[in-house]
Specification:
Layout: H1 3-18, H2 27-36, H3 42-62, E1 68-72, H4 76-90, E2 96-100, H5 102-108, H6 125-158, H7 161-172, E3 181-184, H8 192-205, E4 209-213, E5 229-230, H9 233-249, E6 256-261, E7 268-269, H10 281-286, E8 291-294, E9 306-308, E10 311-315, E11 323-324, H11 330-342, E12 348-351, H12 358-369, E13 377-380, H13 387-401, H14 423-433, H15 435-442, E14 445-450, H16 453-469, H17 475-489, H18 496-499, H19 502-513
Parallel strand pairs: 1-2, 1-14, 2-3, 3-4, 4-6, 5-7, 6-12, 13-14
Antiparallel strand pairs: 7-11, 8-10, 9-10
Length: 531
């Protein structure tokens, strides 16, 4: 017997026990409402989705072709429509997640208005968006099941037992829209205690996976901007521990932590690490500092010096008080960061790079895996990369290395439309198409995400609509570019009243008031024009 049938039976027993005062309660209606609200709390969601991520990680370890993907969503409705689309076109949500981008919260969700990605937005906006996303995903479940219940009732009324059994099976085997969210906590919004407190709020809202970066919290920059400042490993590991304690306190024992390193592009540190003996972690961090050897006589007022192997070294210090790393040390620092994080509580890695290059990523992962064989990445397929130019240049360079004639191409101008139909451009597009497969096979990428794609899609679609609607096309711009496409592509929210919950509400009114219910979905509802 299915969970749905068990609920009907259990509620019927409660009704019988309650006596005549429950005479109006229909056990099947109550069971329907239960199945439409499978997840009671955010912690229920976090525990459910953590198990999914752990299963997916194990499956990737066994077969790197089964990687996972997500898109960043800045509003619950955007996340909901993404999952509805996935279920419609791909028939399953398996291996598809959501990404919550700190960049998009800063740009779109702060009460200050649009902000740069520098941890200046309200920290409460992060758990609020997690809760909002799951509210919309739960509503997607309720809506889709409501349609199934309507079809079930229609099949029963028609006496179509075959159809009834088919629909009942779909209800019993229903796949939820609830999927894991990888949630960006930036650099923790403060010290380790602040990180712990915010992590708790994020987990309580439903996050099973928290991504944290090794930048200085009050100097945090977007991963694709200049001026990034990292912290010594011990500081970062304390925040990883803080997140783990938050998971354990709330009973999400298999919560996932993504340790992000910005060291590839970060040339600065705010502090010199504490070191107790040669070769320890602090000493290794300090070894990357750009220093000059000096004598005691050369020391100046206010100098900070390091004693290493009996030599006095003066780190280069900027007017801001920040210390500078040696040029070219970024990749070595990334490798040390990653190994250290995995050996001290992190589950996955995020290496922020300056370009999408499988070979570059693979070289770093190969070194990391010498110490941690199952190391795997969450990778940002970033909109900050000029994908077209980068891959065309990669193909150009490969052609040069192979001795091929490239005289008809200008490497600096390969973005130009004049190259769109060339063989070079077609090869580059093929490499972009296979980038995720190639990266997961060759560079240990378990999860591919795009941080802020829906920021760009909202801007592009709005530009196209505004250009036509306020121009010569007028209403045709909307009808031809939006509504006609919705109808022909089967976009569910063309019936926007239904998407917003009108039919669910009508059914509830009938549950509550029977024949006296005043319903909105009668013959005069204009949504009936859309079939």
């Amino acid at each position: 017997m299915s969970a749905y049938q068990n609920d009907i039976k259990a509620i019927a027993a409660l009704k019988e026990k309650a006596g005549n005062s429950w005479a109006a309660i229909n056990p099947e209606y109550a069971a329907r409402m239960r199945v439409q609200n499978r997840f009671r709390t955010g912690l229920d969601i976090a525990k459910y989705t953590a198990a999914i991520m752990r299963k997916d990680m194990a499956e990737y370890d066994a077969d790197s072709s089964v990687y996972t993907q997500s898109l960043g969503c800045w509003h619950g409705f955007v996340g909901q429509q993404k999952l509805i689309s996935i279920k419609k076109h791909l028939k399953t949500t398996n291996k598809r997640y959501l990404y919550l981008s700190g960049w998009m919260i800063a740009a779109l969700r702060s009460e200050f208005g649009p902000l740069p990605d520098q941890s200046m937005h309200e920290k409460t906006a992060v758990p609020s968006l997690i809760e909002e996303l799951y509210t919309f995903l739960r509503q997607a479940d309720a809506r889709e099941l409501d349609l199934l219940f309507t079809d079930l009732d229609a099949a029963r009324s028609a006496g179509d037992r075959t159809r009834e059994a088919e629909i009942q099976a779909r209800i019993d085997d229903y796949e939820t829209h609830i999927v894991p969210i990888i949630a960006d906590i930036d650099a923790g919004f403060g010290n380790a205690e602040a990180t712990y407190l915010l992590a708790k709020k994020m987990i309580e809202a439903g996050a099973c996976c928290i991504q944290i970066e090794n930048q200085v919290s009050d100097e945090k920059q977007c991963g694709h901007q200049d001026g990034k400042v990292t912290v010594p490993h011990e500081d970062f590991l304390a925040k990883i521990n803080a997140v783990r304690y938050a998971f354990l306190e709330l009973g999400v024992d298999d919560g996932v932590i993504v340790a992000r390193t910005d060291s590839l592009g970060a040339g600065l540190t705010k502090q010199i690490a504490v070191t107790k003996q040669p070769g320890d972690l602090g000493d290794q961090y300090n070894a990357f500092l750009d220093c000059e050897e000096i004598t005691t006589a050369e020391m100046q007022n206010g100098d900070v010096v390091i004693n290493r192997n009996g030599k006095l070294l003066r780190p280069k210090r900027l007017a801001s008080g920040l210390f500078q790393f040696r040029t070219g040390s970024g990749e070595d620092r990334v490798v040390l960061d990653c190994i250290t994080s995995l050996q001290n509580g992190a589950d996955l890695l995020w290496i922020e790079t300056e370009k999408p290059h499988v070979g570059q990523i693979a070289n770093m992962v190969k070194r990391i895996r010498q110490a941690v064989p199952n190391a795997k990445l969450v990778y940002n397929n970033s909109p900050s990369f000029n994908w077209t130019l980068s891959f065309r240049q990669q193909v150009f360079d490969a052609m040069v290395a192979e001795g091929k004639d490239v005289s008809s191409y200008d490497r600096a101008k390969l973005m130009s439309v004049e190259y769109d139909e060339t063989e070079l451009a077609k090869v580059a597009d093929g490499k972009i198409r296979s980038f995720q497969k190639d990266g997961s096979r060759d560079a240990g990428i378990f999860h591919h995400l795009i941080t802020l794609p829906t920021y760009h899609t909202a801007a592009l679609s709005t530009d196209n609509l505004a250009k036509g609607y306020f121009g010569e096309d007028g209403m045709l711009a909307y009808v031809k570019g939006v509504q006609r496409q919705e109808l022909r592509q089967g976009i569910a929210c063309v019936k926007h009243q239904n998407m917003a919950g009108s039919d669910i509400g009508d059914n509830h009114k009938e549950y509550f008031a029977g024949e006296a219910a005043l319903k909105a979905s009668g013959k005069d509802n204009t949504m009936n024009q859309f079939h």
